[in-house]
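User: Sequence in, structure out. Go.
Assistant: Echoing your sequence, followed by the structure tokens.
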Amino acid sequence: MRVRHVKKGDTVVVVSGKYRGKTGRVIAVFPKRFRVLVEGVNVVKKAVRPSEENPQGGFREQEAPIHAAKVRVLCPQCGRPVRVKRKVLDDGTKVRICNHCGAALDS
């Protein structure tokens, strides 16, 4: 199973689970684990040991990955979370297309 509907830099909406309705930009995609890292979603606190930059130590907030099936791409044309179709153009390039309005998601 591979993550084919989401790419780094896409704006996505979480459609199920604890963070439903939240919107954010994809920071990273982990295809082998079928997970994505979304900015501002699933923020966890991580304990940090004391170091030269942070002599006190303490806690740092960072995003944790969520399952890729829980996110949908936000279409720039119609402005709603949509499913993605893939289409091969005449010149052989593959393009992701909005399943609702037919607009190209790749620029």
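User: And one key feature?
Assistant: Residues 22 and 63 are 13 Å apart (CA to CA).
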